[in-house]
Design a protein that fits this description.
The complex is a heterodimer of chains A (259) and B (322). Chain A has 259 residues and is an alpha/beta fold. Chain A has a single domain, classed as HUPs (Rossmann fold), CATH 3.40.50. Chain A has 7 helices and 13 strands. In chain A, the strands form 2 sheets. A 9-stranded mixed beta sheet of chain A has the order 9-8-7-10-6-1-4-5-11, with helices on both faces. In chain A, helix 2 crosses helix 5. Helix content of chain B is 28%, strand content 26%. Chain B contains 9 helices and 16 strands. Chain B has a 7-stranded parallel beta sheet, with helices on both faces. In chain B, strands 13-12-14-15-16 form a 5-stranded parallel beta sheet. Chain B has a 3-stranded antiparallel beta sheet with strand order 6-7-8, with no helix packed on it. The chains are: A alpha/beta (259), B alpha/beta (322). Chains A and B meet through helix 3, helix 4, strand 7, strand 8 and strand 9 of A and helix 5, strand 5, strand 7, strand 8 and strand 11 of B.
Amino acid sequence: MNIVVCVKQVPDTWAERTLRPEDSRLDRASVDGVINELDEYAIEEGLRLAEAHGGEVTILTMGPEKASESIRKALSMGADKAVHLVDDALEGSDALATSLALATVLQRTGFDLVILGSESTDARTGLLAAMLAERLGCPQLSLASKVEVDGGAVTIHRQADYGYDKVEATLPAVISVVEKINEPRYPSFKGIMAAKKKPVEVLSIADAGIDPAQVGLGAAATEVVSFSKRPPREAGTIVKDEGDGGVKAADFLAAQKFI
Amino acid sequence: MSEILVLAAHDGESVKKVTLELLTLARRFGEPAAVWLGSGADAARERLAEYGAAKVYVAGGDDMTDYVAAPAAEVLAALVAQASPAAVLVPSTAEGKEVAGRLAVKIGSGVLTDAVDLAPADGGAPVAEQSIFGGAIIVKSKVSKGIPIVAVRPNAVPPEAAPAAAALEPVTVELSDAAKGARITDRVTAERSERPELTEASIVVSGGRGVGNAENFALIEGLADRLGAAVGASRAATDAGWYPHQFQVGQTGKTVSPQLYLAVGISGAIQHRAGMQTSKTIMVINKDPEAPIFELADFGVVGDLFKVVPQLTEEITRRQGS
């Protein structure tokens, strides 16, 4: 089975993230990059499926040179190889353009399964998997908390408030996972050493056959009109429980007409 | 006046509140037309009329609800071609965003997600307000290409009645094979609950590390039920297995934006705040006065949740009884 896991490098969410005043874009330079957390679950699921059913796991990353750190980590977890799409012309791509670029590469590499985290912690649009599925003409198995592959069929548990839906499709398919699905492994020392020798194919948009007019900031279909720091909330009323904390809380709820 | 398509969220019988909110917002830009997939439109028509739907496009048939997201995107794409709407609004839920993503590719339009408000700019195009980076920054964005698709978070505005005709208009869309790729074969109900859906609820009561174990979540549930609220949990609580993962509020879980968010025993790391910071009113119960969650509190009680929560629940019961 040919499994491709899409991995995004994002700014660490523990750091303070901000937009650049000059172009309203995320200031990535000032913050450490890490693998988007939900993508680690996608990598783990890819590795488990390859271990159970045979096949190869390829990491696909679009992002600047620096994103190679995340690729190395994914390889040290056990993925077999990687494709790194890197080109200045991709900077500022929105979800539509990103999905176009990734779909173009996926059509070249071929795949049985594409696995992604259900959203990234930076933009958090949660759109990419659906856009990829649409572009690739594939079913999307979203919010997967369990994946089972049986021959050419794949069944997932799709998380819902009331429990889950069983959803089935035939391969090839796009799967987006939630964190309940597994516990991502830590890279072993052996894995870290082995990762250094694993092949990483670096592609420019010309190599990949992507039309420069379709990607980057110039092609973006959405734009930021303005942004501002959230004004600090007005200091609320904080009371210390002196045996009547619950009553005071009820007073507040009553004053706000919640009860 | 241009039409604004509103994808109706429903359970086959009744329409969800977010749909009424979207109809309310849609009136700022044109004439709202609800888009209903599957059965139940006849029963829901009156309510859609009350909240301003001039039309209800109905794509009936089981086909529409047996598959995930893709049928809705095909129906919306067909209606966009037919009606040339000024915008398409969908709920900013996982499913709504899945529809939006597919639709955006089909019609080559930009899409904005997680809008907490939507107002007309000069020229009338929608400008969405979004809250990013764990709620630290407020962004206003617009779609610059194609017919704007906007996914709006539940509870963005209170639904306002504005009676309209809600004329039912059947639409026939022959679904492509590609739209029938992900088939729902079974719906498995693990939690039998009368509580509102987490992302839709007007009030959410969440428990965190301070709750201590699974059994103690009964305290959180008891308070939630008194308030007609949904129950949420922090990642610390879901990771520990104290509460099911689908109720996790935060960066890797659900984002909620209720009228009232009550955080109990939750310290308020940025990863949690990312999921609840746009709540209108925030109440906190925590024994640690230094917990960062107090920075967000409109009202906070520094105290032992095992004393404060039962007293609060009892007090609400008493007041509701009188």
